Each structure stands twice: as C-alpha cells, then as structure tokens.
C-alpha cells in the first residue's frame, strides 16, 4: 500500500522519467516511516544533470545517480517539497532542466543519506522482497504501449522490434513482483 501513497503523477512531454521514478521511490520510503511528503521532480531532474545546472542546454534524459550523489554529499536537506518547487510539464526548447529554478527550489526538506546499486536480477528481487523500491531502466518497443497487460518480446511483430524514442532507456519504479501463470 505504501507504493500507492499520493496520487499518480504525469511527466508530460519532458524526458524526466528517471526523476519521477526516483522521487516516487523516496516518497515511498518516507511513507514507510509515516513521513510521506510530495517531493519535487523539477528539482531532482535539475540535480541529475550537472552539465545543465548553470546554463541552459538541450541535453535529453537523465539518470538518478548524479541527483542521489548530490543529495548524499549535501550537508543540509536539499530536495524540496513539490509545492515549493513545482514541476512544469511543458518542455522549454534548449533548456531541458528549465533554469533558473524558482526560489522555492532552494528550500530543501529531505536529503538522501544512502542508496545502493543492484546489478543482478537476484539483487533486484531481494530488494523488492525486502520492501525497497528499485529504479529500473528498460528499452521500449511499441509493444510496451500496445499490449494486453503483459509485455513479451515474443509478441512483437518483426517490423515492431525496433526500439522507440526511449531507445536509450525508460526509467520505471519497481515496487512488487508477481509469479506469472505457467502458460505465460
């Protein structure tokens, strides 16, 4: 149930999936301690792209490690609440992180103390079974968007085996596991 604390959020047309997955993971961990708060995806996306923090740039996409490291190294809480640093769903051409950030983005509320990388399926399954959210990166095909509840590469028609705009990866937060029926 903690994975469903708060409402689902929409990244809109921006390449911020890793920020959304990470922030939701942090919110889940806060909810587990009964300290749920909505955190800022806008800030975390900015924190995750160091090359775009001082001057506008067109770089697309990010990965959470730079943002997690920035927070971990911070002496004070750095990640603000969503209402202090609201997310803007519409992209700004050649300014992917939308700088300058609003003043409210400097009002840190929490910080990351530690995180760990999981590199094997066994480690990922163990973390999820221990009630930890896991950020995963997946390459997507059209089958991801058009399916009957399950996404299998065997179901993709030959012409659809190409990857889509998320060819470098799409971040998804993993919060649980289910065993598939034998026929699947």
Helix and strand arrangement:
Layout: H1 17-32, H2 41-47, H3 65-73, E1 79-80, E2 108-110, H4 121-129, E3 134-138, E4 170-174
Antiparallel strand pairs: 1-2, 3-4
Describe this structure in words.
This protein has 184 residues and is an alpha+beta fold. 22% of the residues lie in helices and 8% in strands. It has four helices and four strands; from the N terminus they run αααββαββ. The strands form two sheets. A two-stranded antiparallel ribbon has the order 1-2. A two-stranded antiparallel sheet has the order 3-4. The longest helix is centred in the N-terminal third of the chain and has 16 residues, at 17-32. The radius of gyration is 17 Å and the shape is globular.
Global Rg: 17 Å
Average pLDDT confidence is 87
Q: Helical residue percent? A: 10-25%
- Give me the oligomer status: single chain
How many helical elements? 4
Assign the structural class, choosing from mainly alpha, mainly beta, alpha/beta, alpha+beta, or little secondary structure.
Answer: alpha+beta
Q: Order of helices and strands, N to C?
A: HHHEEHEE
**Major sheet: arrangement of strands:** 1-2
The largest pleated sheet is described as: 2 strands, antiparallel
Distance between the termini: 26 Å
| Unreliable segments of 5+ consecutive residues | none
**Inertia-based shape:** globular
The tally of beta strands, per DSSP, is: 4
Q: Report the sheet-strand fraction.
A: 5-15%
């Amino acid at each position: 149930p903690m994975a469903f604390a708060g409402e689902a959020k929409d990244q809109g047309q921006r390449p911020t999936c890793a920020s959304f997955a990470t922030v939701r993971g942090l919110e889940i961990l806060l909810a587990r301690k009964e300290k749920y708060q909505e955190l800022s995806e806008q800030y975390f996306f900015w924190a995750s792209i160091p090359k775009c923090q001082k001057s506008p740039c067109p770089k697309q996409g990010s990965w959470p490690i730079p943002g997690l490291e920035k927070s971990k190294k911070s002496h004070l809480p750095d990640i603000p609440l969503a209402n202090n640093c609201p997310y803007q769903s519409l992209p700004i051409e050649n300014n992917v992180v939308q700088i300058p950030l609003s003043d409210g983005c400097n009002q840190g509320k929490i910080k990351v103390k530690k995180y760990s990388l999981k590199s094997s399926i066994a480690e990922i399954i163990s973390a999820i079974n221990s009630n930890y959210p896991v950020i995963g990166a997946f390459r997507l095909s059209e089958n991801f968007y058009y399916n009957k509840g399950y996404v299998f590469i065997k179901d993709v028609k030959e012409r659809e085996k190409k990857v889509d705009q998320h060819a470098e990866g799409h971040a998804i937060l993993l919060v649980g596991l289910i065993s598939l029926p034998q026929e699947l």
